[in-house]
């Protein structure tokens, strides 16, 4: 084995991000690392590349135990990494990026000719014919990825970790990148490939390792693996498992609003979506499939470039969040830390924020009223905080999520979008959030719930939309809603054809 | 109230320490007497001379709370002072001079706000433009002269006395109270802090950050206009070259002493005002204590360094003795931005 | 064409067009005399601006420059007055001091993880304050060596004088160009300006480079101080107030991105010359007032900042398309 990680453990306050994970990489293989958000993929990679210090376990490279202290150190040891967001400098030329830190010199000055020659040499064999003296930023992300790979391979030469390298590439660029990966495999490198695009995983990988909730779930040969089984491993659902169990049907009323051909180029293909009053619409899809993008165009966080949202009274302006909110929309985003909470402000202020922004600065909510509001929600949602004046950044993830829910409940919206409402929160809080969803709907609110927890979707949804490759590809209603059906829709098209065979 | 007191306690202690220190060297420093209908003495002098920086600090506090900075306030003071002096010079009277100056300040603020909020230019870069060009504009208005006037009304703003206290002192205290009430009795303060802490999350919660940023830069311009009026009134003339020169730095320093982080977020106008008084007490104290004024800058430099040390995130960690936290911070810094679903 | 080069071309074009317009109105302006004076009068600013360029390329800023120049003048004048030292060892001592001063600022910026703006603000107060401590008056310098330096020039064709100061500035620009564009240190500066986090991951020594950047700026400010002392033959603690602003303006007008990572030292030279040309024009005109300089410089700043912002947008669009 080229690289072995044995029983890696990494703790963060409140969570065990890696729980004794073992991972092996052979020379000359492409080994895919799969898992949903929070599965531990990036934590594992960061431990391997020295960006994080592990709390337990060992890393063995070429039979010798190693202890990477930093990304640069890992690189010296032989482990290079290329991230989705290219970690090179767009303001330097391709040659400068490739040779940074080891530029050839003549008489103490960097030699432009030498740099050019070295850069060309480093890029040789990648099938890339570019002017190395232009700024890296002038090239497409695909080219930048390949340059990053060339640098990493040149510096490290043993292990190459590709972390979501294809996330922003089109099909032709992916093919170009895979050509490069195949050549490197032939040269005997061990390549770790992280992606959430299953087609790509099957196209390039020799073996697949699945992580879930910080644990190692399975490592198998890619060739023998069927897609359905893989999705099940990732999502932690067994096909045989009873589905449709404990489902609550809501008394959905008339249509509340509809989106017609709403879309944004490069993010989500135009889609139609109808939401009825008092209905929960679930949205399923793998990470990066277009589910969050759907929420963002509906809420105005990304301005749509086609289509419209309408209700019975006519078109609704959702060009900015403030306007969407004025039309009775709410959105609890997936990334609570960067998009949800205002960390330094108190629980009280965070709860009152949306309501206050909607009323305008000149009509303040009296302090006593804010306090009452906050205390009310702290009680109703069981938010664990010493008091309403505690900075929200100091609460646990689940409680932060409840504060954001409280922010929107205080607005009493008619349509609320919840993006991964139960991600990263403990079991108790999880059940409470689901209870809350049912309560809200009973009160006549309409919800769009995005989740990778399929059982959760099955439990709460009246309808489930499945998103794949930035398109809405399927809609399941009533008895059709089972984890099995959702998984099939996510894994299609191949799974569907296999089933047909 | 106790919360407020706790918030400004470090600033009050700093002020107290400065006052005690100055009194040791110059025992008569704290004595206040009565001469005619007005109070006299060093504390009164501090209240008066500190007025321009205190006024600027009010606006600067709000701007810094949004993660911005306004380098142009000194130049804006010069523009507004020149506008007022021009109005008097042209015989339009005080009734035109003051509104003209305030309008000029608002306009300058609008310009800065437009560059920051609409064009999305970094605040330090955006306000640099007016910092450089502003003095030229002021000189254009005064045609390079020191425009002197003898209008008693405008002069009163700078050197008059009301109920025993100098008019500038009333002005900054009044402006401070109004600003404090406006930001805390309306939701402005909350929204400003929210934008300063997390702009993206605030937008997603429906906060109209564009209007908010425009507003704070306009408030800063307005404060600079008031400060410009005081300086102009005090010397009975508009000096486009020297009015408000380098006061932007003192104002930023006052905000920093006031404990408002230069990275935005929680702010306190009262603490900034105390900060302004700390600076002025040092200025006046050094003079009175018999030190040559040349020590002033060295002491200021030492003060800035001290504040920097206290505010530094790294030093805070060391002080807490938590190597663990340090490591986490480094990890966070070293970690690449791998947020798969967030793209530009 | 490389988009990054566009601001440099714009700078040069603006300078040439401005010169052309001046020439159409005052044919005399196109003479080696004017050019010689342009170089001599702006020598200290140009030297300081070279240091500032490197600082700004790294995404930083150095507000202490003007104060350091004033300190340098006072230091030289007082030392020459009170000791029997020859100017050369005094220069060496001074450059050592200002370099160490800059290095200390850089070390603080790195160690405290605080914005360069505030740290160098303290440096600005400190340098000016120390200058005050040395003397409050303007101290004349009447060392014979200074006269030699002042009178050193090469007579260009057309009776223009290429003075020692002008040559010193051009040498500094040339040196700065080599340093910024042809050394590993220079590439590291661009790398830090392009993104400190990424630069660290690519193995750039952030701490060492930051210290060196501010040390270089301190050195150049000291050298600018020497040039200013030669130019004025005096040391005055109130001199060169706000020169850091002019230097920053010259750098920005020279096409360097104020947020760092993109720009050229050569552009800064043209930025300085453009600013000097505006002043020369006003002198030639005779009726225009000096404040137009500031307004025009402000307009140029605005123009370049918006141009850079526009280029950034175009770059993004091109990549997404």
Automatic annotation (TrEMBL), chain A:
Q: Which SUPFAM superfamilies match?
A: P-loop containing nucleoside triphosphate hydrolases
Q: Where does the protein end up?
A: Cell membrane
Topological category with respect to the lipid bilayer: Peripheral membrane protein
Q: What is this protein called?
A: Sugar ABC transporter ATP-binding protein
Keywords of this entry: ATP-binding, Cell membrane, Membrane, Nucleotide-binding, Repeat, Sugar transport, Translocase, Transport
| Pfam entry (one) | ABC_tran
SMART domains on file? AAA
Checking InterPro entries in the record gives: AAA+_ATPase, ABC_carbohydrate_import_ATPase, ABC_transporter-like_ATP-bd, ABC_transporter-like_CS, P-loop_NTPase
List the molecular function annotations (GO) for this entry. ATP binding; ATP hydrolysis activity
Gene3D superfamilies under this entry?
P-loop containing nucleotide triphosphate hydrolases
TrEMBL record, chain B:
**UniProt-annotated location(s):** Cell membrane
Write the record's keywords in alphabetical order, separated by commas.
Answer: Cell membrane, Membrane, Transmembrane, Transmembrane helix
Q: Which residues form the signal peptide?
A: none
Please tell me whether the keyword Chloroplast is annotated for this protein. Answer: no
Q: Where is it chiefly localized?
A: membrane
Q: Where are the transmembrane segments?
A: 12-34, 46-64, 71-88, 94-117, 124-142, 162-183, 204-231, 243-263, 297-316
Q: Which GO terms describe its cellular component?
A: plasma membrane
Its membrane topology is listed as: Multi-pass membrane protein
Q: Give one GO term, molecular function aspect.
A: transmembrane transporter activity
The protein's name in its UniProt record: ABC transporter permease
From TrEMBL, chain C:
Q: Which residues cross the membrane?
A: 6-26, 47-80, 86-104, 111-134, 162-180, 211-232, 238-258, 265-284, 290-307
Q: Keyword set for this entry?
A: Cell membrane, Membrane, Transmembrane, Transmembrane helix
Q: Which domain of life is it from?
A: Bacteria
Q: Supply one GO molecular-function term.
A: transmembrane transporter activity
Q: Which InterPro entries match?
A: ABC_transp_permease
The record, for Pfam families, names:
BPD_transp_2
According to the UniProt record, one GO cellular component term is: plasma membrane
Location of the protein in the cell: Cell membrane
Report how it sits in the membrane: Multi-pass membrane protein
What name does this protein carry?
A: Sugar ABC transporter permease YjfF
**Source species:** Rubellimicrobium roseum
């Amino acid at each position: 084995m080229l690289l072995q990680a044995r029983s890696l453990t990494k703790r963060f306050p409140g969570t065990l991000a890696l729980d004794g994970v073992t991972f092996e990489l052979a020379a000359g293989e492409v080994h895919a690392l799969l898992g949903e958000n929070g599965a531990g993929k990036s934590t594992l990679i960061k431990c391997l590349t020295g960006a994080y210090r592990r709390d337990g376990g060992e890393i063995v490279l070429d039979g010798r135990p190693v202890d990477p202290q930093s990304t640069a150190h890992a690189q010296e040891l032989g482990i290079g990494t290329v991230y989705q967001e290219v970690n090179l400098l767009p303001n330097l030329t391709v040659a400068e990026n490739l040779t940074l830190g080891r530029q050839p010199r003549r008489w103490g000055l960097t030699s432009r000719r030498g740099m050019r020659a070295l850069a060309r040499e480093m890029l040789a064999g990648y099938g890339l014919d570019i002017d190395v003296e232009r700024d890296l930023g002038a090239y497409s992300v695909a080219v930048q990825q390949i340059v990053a790979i060339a640098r990493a391979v040149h510096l490290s030469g043993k292990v190459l970790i590709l972390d979501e390298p294809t996330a922003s590439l089109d099909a032709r660029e992916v093919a170009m990148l895979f050509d490069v990966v195949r050549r490197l495999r032939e040269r005997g490198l061990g390549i770790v490939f992280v992606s959430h695009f299953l087609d790509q995983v099957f196209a390039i990988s020799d073996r697949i390792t699945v992580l879930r909730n910080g644990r190692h779930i399975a490592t198998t040969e890619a060739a023998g693996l069927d897609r359905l089984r893989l999705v099940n491993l990732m999502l932690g659902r067994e096909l045989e498992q009873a589905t449709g169990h404990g489902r609550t049907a809501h008394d959905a009323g008339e249509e509340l609003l509809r989106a017609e051909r709403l879309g944004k180029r490069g993010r989500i293909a135009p889609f139609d979506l109808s939401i009825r009053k008092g209905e929960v619409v679930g949205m399923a899809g793998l990470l990066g499939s277009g589910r969050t993008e759907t929420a963002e165009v509906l809420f105005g966080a990304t301005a749509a470039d086609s289509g419209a949202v309408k209700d019975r009274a006519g078109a609704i302006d959702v060009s900015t969040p403030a306007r969407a909110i004025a039309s009775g929309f709410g959105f609890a985003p997936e990334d609570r830390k960067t998009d949800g909470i205002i960390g330094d402000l108190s629980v009280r202020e965070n709860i009152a924020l949306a309501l206050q922004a909607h009323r305008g600065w000149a009509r303040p909510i009296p302090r006593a009223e804010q306090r009452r509001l906050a205390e009310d929600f702290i009680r109703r949602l069981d938010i664990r905080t010493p008091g309403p004046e505690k900075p929200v950044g100091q609460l646990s993830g689940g409680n932060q999520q409840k504060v954001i829910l409280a922010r929107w409940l205080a607005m009493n919206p008619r349509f609320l979008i919840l993006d991964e409402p139960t991600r990263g929160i403990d079991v108790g809080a999880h059940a409470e959030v689901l209870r809350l969803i049912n309560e809200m709907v009973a009160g006549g609110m309409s919800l769009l719930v995005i989740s990778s927890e399929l059982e959760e979707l099955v439990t709460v949804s009246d309808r489930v939309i499945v998103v794949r490759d930035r398109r809405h590809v399927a809609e399941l209603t009533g008895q059709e809603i089972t984890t099995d059906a959702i998984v099939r829709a996510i894994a299609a098209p191949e799974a569907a054809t296999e089933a047909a065979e | 109230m106790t919360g407020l007191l706790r918030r400004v306690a470090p600033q009050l202690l700093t002020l107290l320490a400065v006052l005690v220190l100055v009194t040791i060297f110059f025992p008569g420093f704290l004595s206040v007497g009565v001469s005619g209908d007005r109070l006299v003495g060093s504390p009164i002098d501090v209240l008066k001379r500190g007025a321009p920086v205190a006024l600027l600090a009010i606006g600067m506090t709000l701007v810094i709370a949004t993660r911005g900075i306004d380098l142009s306030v000194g130049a804006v003071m010069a523009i507004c002072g020149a506008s007022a002096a021009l109005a008097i010079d042209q015989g339009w009277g005080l009734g035109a001079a003051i509104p003209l100056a305030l309008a000029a300040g608002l306009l300058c603020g609008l310009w800065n706000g437009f560059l920051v909020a609409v064009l999305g230019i970094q605040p330090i870069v955006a306000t640099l433009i007016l910092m450089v060009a502003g003095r030229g504009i002021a000189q254009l208005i005064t045609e390079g002269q020191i425009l002197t006037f003898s209008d008693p009304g405008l002069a009163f703003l700078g050197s008059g006395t009301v109920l025993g206290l100098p008019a500038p002192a009333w002005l900054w205290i009044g402006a401070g109270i109004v600003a404090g009430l406006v930001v805390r009795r309306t939701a402005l303060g909350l929204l400003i802090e929210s934008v300063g802490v997390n702009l993206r999350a605030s937008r997603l919660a429906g906060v109209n950050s564009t209007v908010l940023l425009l507003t704070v830069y306009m408030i800063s311009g307005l404060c600079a206009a008031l400060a410009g009026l005081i300086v102009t009134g005090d010397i009975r003339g508009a000096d486009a070259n020297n009015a408000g020169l380098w006061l932007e730095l003192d104002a930023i320093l006052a905000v920093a002493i006031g404990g408002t982080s230069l990275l935005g977020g929680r702010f306190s106008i009262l603490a900034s005002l105390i900060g302004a008084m700390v600076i002025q007490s040092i200025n006046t104290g050094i003079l009175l204590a018999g030190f040559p004024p040349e020590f002033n800058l060295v002491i200021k430099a030492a003060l800035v360094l001290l504040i920097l040390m206290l505010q530094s995130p790294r030093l805070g960690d060391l002080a807490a003795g938590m190597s663990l936290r340090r490591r986490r911070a480094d990890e966070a810094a070293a970690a690449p931005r791998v947020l798969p679903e967030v793209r530009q | 064409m490389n988009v990054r080069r566009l601001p440099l071309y714009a700078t040069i074009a603006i300078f040439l067009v401005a010169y052309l317009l001046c020439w159409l109105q005052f044919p005399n302006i196109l003479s080696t005399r004017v050019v010689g004076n342009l170089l001599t009068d702006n020598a200290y600013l140009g030297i300081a601006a070279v240091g500032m360029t490197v600082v700004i390329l790294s995404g930083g800023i150095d507000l202490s420059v003007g104060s350091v120049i004033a300190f340098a003048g006072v230091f030289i004048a007082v030392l020459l007055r009170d000791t029997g030292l020859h100017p050369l060892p005094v220069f060496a001592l001074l450059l050592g001091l200002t370099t160490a001063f800059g290095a200390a600022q850089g070390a603080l910026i790195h160690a405290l993880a605080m914005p360069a703006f505030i740290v160098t603000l303290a440096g600005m107060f400190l340098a000016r304050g120390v200058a005050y401590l040395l003397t409050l008056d303007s101290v004349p310098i009447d060392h014979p060596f200074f006269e030699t330096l002042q009178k050193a020039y090469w007579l260009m064709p057309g009776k223009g004088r290429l003075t020692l100061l002008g040559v010193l500035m051009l040498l500094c620009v040339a040196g700065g160009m080599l340093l910024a564009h042809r050394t590993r240190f220079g590439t590291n500066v661009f790398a830090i300006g392009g993104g400190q986090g990424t630069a660290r991951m690519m193995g750039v020594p952030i701490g060492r480079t930051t210290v060196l950047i501010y040390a270089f700026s301190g050195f150049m400010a000291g050298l600018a101080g020497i040039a200013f002392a030669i130019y004025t033959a005096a040391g005055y603690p109130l001199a060169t107030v706000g020169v850091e602003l002019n230097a920053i303006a010259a750098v920005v007008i020279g096409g360097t991105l104020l947020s760092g990572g993109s720009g050229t030292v050569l552009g800064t030279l043209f930025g300085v010359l453009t600013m000097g040309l505006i002043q020369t024009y006003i002198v030639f005109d005779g009726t225009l007032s000096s404040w137009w300089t500031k307004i025009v410089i402000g307009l140029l700043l605005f123009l370049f900042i918006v141009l850079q912002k526009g280029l950034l947008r175009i770059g993004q669009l091109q990549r997404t398309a």
